[in-house]
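Checked the freezer inventory, then went back to the computational side. Two predictions to log before the end of the day. The first one is the construct we discussed on Monday; recording sequence and tokens without edits.
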Amino acid sequence: MKITKDLYQSNLVLLTDFYQLTMAYAYWKSGKGEQEAVFNLFFRKHPFQGGFTLAAGLDYVVDFCKNFKFEKGDLEYLAGMKNKDKSPVFEQAFLEYLKNLAFTCDIDAVEEGTVVFPNAPLIRVRGPLIQCQLLETPLLNIINFQTLIATKAARINIAAQGEPVLEFGLRRAQGIDGALAASRAAYIGGCTSTSNVMAGKLFGIPVAGTHAHSWIISFETELEAFVAYADAFPDQCVFLVDTYDTLNGVKNAIKVGEILRSKGKEMVGIRIDSGDLAYFSTKARQLLDEAGFPDAKIIASNDLDEHIIASLKSQEADINVWGVGTKLVTAYDQPALGAVYKLSAIRMADGTWDPKVKVSQQLLKINIPGVHNVKRYFTKGKAIADMIYLEDQDIDPKSVVIIDPIDATRRKRLMPVYYQEEVLLKPIFKKGEKVYDLPTLDAVRNRAAEQLESLDKTHKRLVNPHLYPVGLEENLHHLRMELVLKAKKFDNGMD
């Protein structure tokens, strides 16, 4: 997948916030630019008030890092930047440094399609401070959006209870890349196809679509329009029936379906795009069944999301396929995931790691220090808990206690010896060289389905889901508290 080359240019190294470049310059000036550091990308709360999040976007991250290089045009642009006194923002020696900068970081990440939870790292970057810093904005841009959309798609597919969900959002998406990334993420989240033909070409996603109301009204009558469409596409006829009168539209579709049948073809179904979907789908099903078309599908669209689909399900609507657009590709009810990227450790001159913590009056915003990873524990194929732990810390196989990062009174004892386990952060790059074989998009989609299946159904409720246990291993919890108390000097906030 070469999304950056197909749509933009050979690299996107300037797709960053200006302050990342000013910090990089200041690191270089202070002599800290090559000091080794560890940063973690994570989020603090599930989107959509849900109980799970579905990781997506790693493929784009790999593509970005493989093409990480400051080229002639990038350096010329930076050289042209001026301070208020007309002096250059960046001195020439720094631009020469950027010119020769080669990507040498280690990156470990959860695989795409993995179910993930707050505070646990999705990506860990280890390398020179300057490189780690320059990766912050693009990694957040990529992971935030695709993870958000994959999660929304998964929720919509859960509401659809196994019935196909078609992604129809191209025309309402946030620009070209927003549309393409959304189509890809929606497919990971379980959608069966997209209306976006370019996404079909670039990613191999099945494409689907019928016709619009404009097709109908371009003819003198609806029946004439259906006949003409059946003549053009006899093997894939889905008729949009709500241009004038929905139930009369169904009857016209039946008439054309009978013509198709006389030619040895079968009508695929009808689509309803407005009105009372529960009522009209039920009536349409009756008409189709009575006319001898019990296998004809009823597709519904019209600003659907997981809550509307769940409501229609509870009303026993006769809908077989769901077309979802705007509210999926724009993550209509939560436009951003809010993942962050925080420094957690600095390598000292003696080779040891100095763990770092950002202190805040809000416990939610205190990051997790040190070089840490995540283990997921399973029993009988079901995920039971995630543990965030220091990589250099021995874990007792008989008994460990995990402590909630936000509420230290919430604790869970685990007995690892009785469980299966998976280390979630997998090596992607080592010293700048890719060591991970990217799976196909279908393999990612299958992993997402398997991951969701491993969660108890209570964690997948659309409303008021049960909290999945994620905690800090005791030693990491104590380290974090020690650093927080040291930074606060024991009296901060007590005035």
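The second is the one RB wanted added to the comparison set:
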Amino acid sequence: MRFLLEVTMDEGALAEDPTGELQRILRYWGGNLKHYELRAGDGAEIYDSAYREVGRWRIEGQAG
């Protein structure tokens, strides 16, 4: 299985403060993952601090 995190960084809050926004996104989703079983097909949209969709994370593949 693979955990994939894709974030568009060329507009909005990520363009203005890429380091700060990525830190915020990683902290938030790192803590939020406990609400998922982390199975193939799981995923969610990712939003910046202005609540604009900037990406997505997902689990691909199969265990074993």
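For RB: The chain has one domain: 2-60. Strands lie at 2-7, 43-47, 53-60. Let me know if you want it refolded.
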